[in-house]
Amino acid sequence: MKDKALKTIFNEHKETALFGRYINLKHIIPLLKKHENNFKIEVIGQSVLKENIHSIKIGAGKKRILMWSQMHGNESTTTKSIFDLLNFFTDNPLSESILNACTIVIIPILNPDGAKAYTRLNANNVDLNRDAQNLTQPESIVLKDLFNSFKPHYCFNLHGQRTIFSAGATNNSASLSFLSPAQDKDCTITGNRKKAMSIIVKINTMLQAEIPNQVGTYDDAYNINCVGDTFQSLNVPTVLFEAGHYSNDYDREEVRRYVFQSYLIALTTIVNNDINLEDFNEYLKIPQNEKLFFDVIIKNACFNNEILDIAIQYQEKLIDDKIIFSPKVEKIDKLDNYFAHNVIDASNNAVLDKDGHTLSIGVENDFVIVNNSKYSLKFD
Predict the structure, then answer these.
(1) What does each C-alpha distance from 111 to 53, 71, 159, 312 come to in angstroms?
(2) Where are the domains of the chain?
(3) Does domain 293-376 have CATH number 2.30.40.10?
(4) Using CA atoms, how far apart are residues 15 and 83, in angstroms rounded to an integer?
(5) Phi-psi region for residue 251, left (φ > 0), alpha (ψ -120 to 50) or beta?
(6) How many CB atoms lie within 10 A of CB 255?
(7) Confidence (pLDDT) at 340
(8) Sheet of 373-376, strands arranged across
(9) pTM of the model
(10) CATH-assigned architecture of domain 3-291
């Protein structure tokens, strides 16, 4: 599929009922009902707080693909893209080759309690992505039982990442990131890791045409407690998807499109048998993520006759069913080796809060005053 065609497909099938960062079971239940005559939708378990966990079964082909989203409740972009994908499968003839070749099972929200509370953890304050071996949580057991019964040939582990990540040591935000997880402590590049790497390389080729130098990979340090490492160790090629930050896209609506397009490229790569085990060399050239970004940096601020920089990081807060991005002073220092999604130049002036006080680390401020002028710290 050509890049322009992919964008057109997304625009035609975007699920308009979903928007922004706060996506929970309440938002997707009407959409599950909408699709109940198109796909097999089941309740496959319950969360700690007895919320239903659903699966969606699509297609009837021999290649089995398992996808799950919102293992971390506050990582919702990939869930939005799932429902865009369902619309594509419902009424686009281009989907027929995928539906005929594949059987896809999707868990749209694995952690419904965390999704409702907008937290990474589940209701027992457990990170489900560190529970793959002990299986102490009902949500972990639901995923593992589905994995065992479905016996997938490929797994797509769908996540979201913070705005802090750069694609390598560059002033380029990691708008999407990927990983072919390790399957042993030596991080051996095995055959099934190469298959996952090849899928990522095909996705990266597409993304570079739209967001050049804004794709990263994660360190593949082995942790058998992580779901991806566990499934990879069971010889199932597993691809980690991480929806990141694009310029001013704090609602993750532009990145949502890139994720949707990545799904299609991944699926068509599998359907068309385009996996090339030599692609791992290209995978290794994708820059690894570094934590070099802040949301805002106020440059050249005067503190006690010293010129420093002020780093602002947004705190995501759930208030009245909306996500509020509250600017918090994270660091005051020389920040020449860091980057920001928004830069304010204080031009060697003092930077004050709304009460006329000098800023301090840990304090939240919606705006600052520089040389008697007011500057908003919020994104436009």
Answers:
(1) 8, 5, 12, 30
(2) 3-291, 293-376
(3) yes
(4) 6
(5) alpha
(6) 23
(7) 98
(8) 351-352, 367-370, 373-376
(9) 0.97
(10) 3-Layer(aba) Sandwich (3.40)
